[in-house]
Each structure stands twice: as structure tokens, then as C-alpha cells.
Specification:
The chain is α/β, with parallel strands linked by helices and 290 residues long. It has 10 helices and 12 strands. The model has no long low-confidence stretch (mean pLDDT 96).
Length: 290
Amino acid sequence: MTSWLITGAGGMLGQDLTAVLTGEPVLTGERVTALGRADLDITDPAAVRAAVAGHDVVVNCAAWTDVDGAETAEEAATAVNGTGVRHIAAACAESGARLIQVSTDYVLPGDAEQPYAEDAPTGPVNAYGRSKLVGERAVAELLPERGYIVRTAWLYGEHGRNFVATMLSLAAQRETLDVVDDQLGQPTWSWALARQLVALGRSAEAPPGVYHGTASGETSWYGLARAAYELTGLDPERIHRTSSAAYPRPAARPAYSVLGHDRWKAAGLTPLADWRESLAEALTRPAFRR
């Protein structure tokens, strides 16, 4: 029987991952331990070691996710996204568990013109990206044979704040919305990513290393907002184009966050579906129909 540990289980992805794994317990015969922030502080090495013990697969969804806040608190962000990940990787190395570390497109420079390969040079443009890269390097160093780094981006889902939910909520408050059209990425449904992470954890063929857990295709935030309106019966002409310069933020954002998916073939798995297909399925969920 495979025993799973999910850290950061209270977040958007963590909740979906827990639901995917526990949705068919009789079929899979798996045991799942889901620990939220209140249950496990990943910056405490002793607590991490005790939590990891007895598990076969660990999926770390725990993270500092305040991108702008990290600009003035990089040490604190790195304590979670870097040092905390090192504690988990060390505990997995000690116990023999496999680790799936959820990372981000922000470890890349965002200046490409074609999808980033999994082995593309890193180069974060903000403190959050630098903190996540510290975690990636810890996994690669301590778990060269059992460490999996899955980078995702533009994540949305039923649990917690996200761009899609915000756009739909604002439809009742504003007649028109100005949305950035000069950043490109791959909107990724957290439920679809959760299923992919489970498939990766169950795969006996998957080689360790970096994988890109994003939807296929690409669009801008403007394109995503219009699609969300179209798919929910709202008028997409209410969405107007603007540039990133109109919304200055403390942390720089990559202009190009489109990732390649070749590595999934080595794992015997199909990459995630096109972003629009996943969005259409996600928007049938009650949480998006309020």
C-alpha cells in the first residue's frame, strides 16, 4: 500500500490533491496524510522528519506565495521556499521516500520567444523566484534519484483567491475591466494539475528531475479574462486591453511564462490539456457559478 504525505494541504492545490487521492480509496488502496500550515511548520526540521517518516511519496504544496511581499521579506520567503524544502528533501533522503516539489515558472527569466524546455537556464527576476529556486536546487542536490520538481504557473481553482474567480466576481461590480495583454502564459486548473501530480507519483517509469505542470497552449491575461466571460455567458467585449505599465507592482513579472512539456513523455504520461479546454470544464464547477 502506497502512503502519501501532502504538505500545504490547506491551499488551493493541496485541497484538490487531497480530494483526488481520497476520492477513490477503495480502488487505489492508498493511505493519505494531509497536513496544513497549522499541522506542520516545514521550517522545523524535527517536525518535518517526524511527518515524513513512514510515507512513500511526499508532495510539497507548502509555500510562501506572496510574490510582492517577498520583495521586502526575501529571507522569510526563502526560509519557507528554500530552507523548508531542504528540510523535506533531507527527510525524504533519510526515509527513502520520493518527493514531488511544486515549483514555479518564476525561476525562469521570462524573456524567451518559444516555450522553455525543462533544462532551460534559470534566472529569476524577483525575490519570490529566487526563493523557489533555492528549493529546486535542494531537491536536485539531496534527491538526485527520487526528487521531482514540477513547475506550474497561472494557477486557478475552486479554493482560494485566483485570477479567474476575481474576474468573474468583478463582473457584477464593474461594467468594463482593463486587463493586461503583454504577459503570456498558460492558465492551469489546479484540479487538472492535482491529477497530473498523482499520476506522476504513481508512475513506475518517471525519471527524476524537472517537469512542467502547466496547461498546453498559451494566452495573455486579457485572453484568459475574455475566455472566462465567453464561457460563462458574459460579454467578452467588456474586457479591454491594457499594458503591464498600467499596473506597476513591487515584484517584476516575467513577460513570457510559456513552458514546454517534453519531459512527460519520458514518464509515460500525457501533458495537461489545452488551457481553454480545462477552463471550460473548471467553469462548470459550483464555485465559479456563484
